[in-house]
Amino acid sequence: MKRVILLGVDGFGGQWPKPCALNELEIAAIVDNCESARLQGQKELGLSPSQVFDGSDLSWADVEADCIIEATAPGHRVERVLAALNTGKDVIMAKPPVLSIEDFQRIIEAKNALGREVHVVTQKRYFPAFYKIKSIIEQEDLGKLVYADIDLRVDGTYWKSGFYWRKKLPFPSLIDGSIHHFDLLHWWTGTGYQDVSAVSWNPEWSPFDHDCDVSVAIRMDNGAFVNYTSRWSMKYGPVVNYFEGIRLEFQRGVLEVKEGKLYQDGRYIPLISDGRAMMDTGELNIYILSDILKSIEHKADYYQTSIENQRGSFSCVFACVASILNEKRIELSGLEEHLEEYGISKIQMDEKLRDVFVRN
């Protein structure tokens, strides 16, 4: 049985023990800076005190294990990932993987130098309607994507355990949430991102410290246009969550997801466990973990989950940040050459993130 260190057992991290058990992974240690979460995790998993770490240092990396699942808050994640790689472990990490383009590249360089595997959890791909979209695009002659509408409207305080840092995070719905949509769009169509023009705002009733809502006009590298809106400030009315609000218009067909159900050219496509029944990311983690473990075992990116595969989606997030900060359209080509000019270099991002991940 493979051994794994679980970093983060609070919030979304608490969704990983079941997928680990079903994929025959033994949890060798847990790491969390929340004392109550550590104690609860130790009790539920039957671990000894020596298998429980508060994350104040990197001593957990010396535990014998094959890989880590990095499900903590993304602040300082690069140090934890590099510690795992340097002690011979493969890495499975949540999104957003890190919070600067330089740190993203550091991880790629380290894993290549050390011959290790780093994969990013993309569980929303496994939602039945989203998975079927991929199948339809591959099997039917829809032509190229021409236009897409992606709309998200939720109460961003819903994720209680992580609200202490999301509240302080600059552009939280963009930096923490939009990579899920950007990953799906790239995965579905295979197209990359050419340029973005973004604006942000923060309604007077918003509980977030910074602009939590964003609207982006995206041009894909095949010429398609994407109208993207992400709001975490919903006050009243029906929400549009991460498992709906999708409309893809191709040359010869339209795919749309409403209330978790898939429609093709206006016709409902019945799926097993569609609708709201499969909107549990913990359940979806079972499938993504199985596929990632196969890729790690064979050192192959079978399911397009490698960190390299996330480069375009990740860069699109920070191109949007650059567009907001500079009030202009940003080209993704050559973005790495203008990080400081655009205000999104690691040093500049670290300054923006100062104290964000400190529990009050």
| Structural class by SSE content | alpha/beta
Q: What oligomeric state do the depicted chains represent? A: single chain
Q: Count of helices?
A: 11
State the distance separating the first and last CA atoms.
39 Å
Residue share in helix: 25-40%
* Mean pLDDT, all residues: 94
Structure overview:
With 360 residues, the chain is α/β, with parallel strands linked by helices. Helices cover 33% and strands 22% of the residues. The protein contains 11 helices and 15 strands. The protein has a 9-stranded mixed β-sheet with strand order 14-13-12-11-7-10-9-8-15, with helices on one face. Strands 3-2-1-4-5-6 form a 6-stranded parallel β-sheet. Strand 13 and strand 14 form a beta hairpin. The radius of gyration is 20 Å and the shape is globular.
In short:
By secondary structure, the protein is an alpha/beta fold. It is 33% helix and 22% strand.
Write the layout of secondary structure elements.
Layout lengths: L1 E6 L9 H6 L2 E7 L3 H11 L6 E2 L13 E4 L6 H10 L3 E4 L7 H14 L3 E3 L7 H12 L5 E9 L9 H4 L5 H18 L3 E9 L11 E8 L4 E7 L14 E5 L2 E6 L2 E4 L2 E3 L11 H18 L12 H16 L3 E2 L7 H4 L3 H7 L8
Parallel strand pairs: 1-2, 1-4, 2-3, 4-5, 5-6, 7-10
Antiparallel strand pairs: 7-11, 8-9, 8-15, 9-10, 11-12, 12-13, 13-14
Helix pairs in contact: 3-4, 5-7, 7-9
Keywords:
nine-stranded mixed beta sheet; six-stranded parallel beta sheet; 360 residues; alpha/beta
